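Today's session is about reading a structure prediction critically. Students often jump straight to the picture, but the first step is always the sequence itself: look for stretches that repeat, for charged clusters, for runs of hydrophobic residues. Only then move on to the predicted structure, which in these notes is written as discrete structure tokens rather than atom positions. Here is the chain we will use throughout the hour.
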Amino acid sequence: MKKELYFDRHSGLQLSALVEDGKLVELGIENEERKEFVGNIYKGRVVNVIESMNAAFVDCGLERNCFLPLSDDEALDVVSKYATKTEKRRRKKSPPLQLSPGDELIVQAVKNPRGNKGAKLSTKLSFVSKNLIFLPNTDFLGVSRKISEVELRENLLFTADRLRKKGEGLVVRTVAPYAKLSQLKTELAYLRSLYATVLEKYKTLPVGGILHREYDLPARVIRDSFNDEISRVTVGEKGLYEQLVSLSSLRPAFESWNIELYEGQDDMFSKYGIAEQVKQLSGSTVSLPNGGSIVIERTEALTAIDVNTSRYLGDENLEDTVYATNIAAAREIARQMRLRDVGGIVVVDFIDMLDERHRQSVEEELRQCLSHDKVQSNVLPMNEFCLSVFTRKRTTNGVASKLLKPCSHCKLNGHIFSDEFNICLIRAEILKALSDGAQTVVVDMNRGLMEFLFKHKMLENELKRWHGSKVYFVPHRTYHEEQFKLKAYAKGKRATLPEDAQLLVCEE
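Below is the predicted structure for this chain, in token form.
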């Protein structure tokens, strides 16, 4: 399988895409002004304690107060992710937290805010590096579940136990068996220094101050992909390219990676067919290779998926047609879960199959395809109605929360592309026009979106690579947010401009 990584940074967004054999399977989007909270460590103050919920609400300087379980083991995700059942039983549970309003403490975000809910916190801190996860105040040892050999797991646990100090915890990541003991010691020393820095900052920073910030999107993707067989890494922005090359030079494991700077004039994601696949995420219906389809509907409580034969009629009897469609659906569902980053409970209504062997085969195919996902899933047995239920660990609010926004034209019942992504699409069309020889480009667009573009200076730095070309924007009150028209003028051709046209000027 050919795996390729793509990174870009523009229009106020950082973007990452993992493509397997030409298909987009993972998409990362991060607003440079509104970054992810997970992994960040804050100085917080307890606002109130709700004993009936066994939880406290903590002010961390964020938009909403954050949620902290008093049984703090509930918020320690590394325990469930990196320990077998036997290893979990070995671990001593911590006593419940004893907190009162006004108490100040060090907390780490383990889940992003979602809907009206604030971020979820833990006082059990974790620092992630290539080979190890360091838990400075949690007495725990764990090994990546991808290391399944019992003897190797025991050896790694023994090594980790020798490395740690009393009261510390360590989790051994997937590639740690390939590292030398000296490398593990150096890495652990660095992680300890990060924790020491947090403790020092805590003494002086006010409540709401960030004591430690998690890596940004490209660095996290690189860090978590080091063991993947990546054939090529393509970067669309020079500053980001230099950052990733510098990062890879510090990590011997990345030296074999072929990191290239994309120097084409067109938008990189459009050039490689990624943008078109991203656009499809706005719809609920996904076509299958054989002509069938799946419909994905997300609610607050769960995600429901319906499988349909659609145009696929098959060559054999009905049972074989249904079985073939369900197998194709199982593969696509696993891909869509990764791509859309769906978390929580997922219910799949497969097409009814009479043959028990077919039901077992589809269930196993779904389980097998989900196993390639870095995020843990748990698939329950399919019932007689061909309903399959599985859970997927919720790590973010999903790609849809960053790619889409509620549509004001349909009373917030539907969704349209976010302002940032709409500007990405406009940028791609401008780049295409300029690469085709245009000297002046005029874009007619929604007035509100145009105001957003200029207010946040989202395309000003792009002019540096547009070689003196002029780009004008014309506002329209009647245009829908996703509606725009582009007119391109070659050198020597004069553009006809209305009075309210605004020229994009490069910020010096």
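Discussion point for the tutorial: Residues 424-503 form a domain with the Hypothetical Protein Ychn; Chain: A, fold (CATH 3.40.1260.20).
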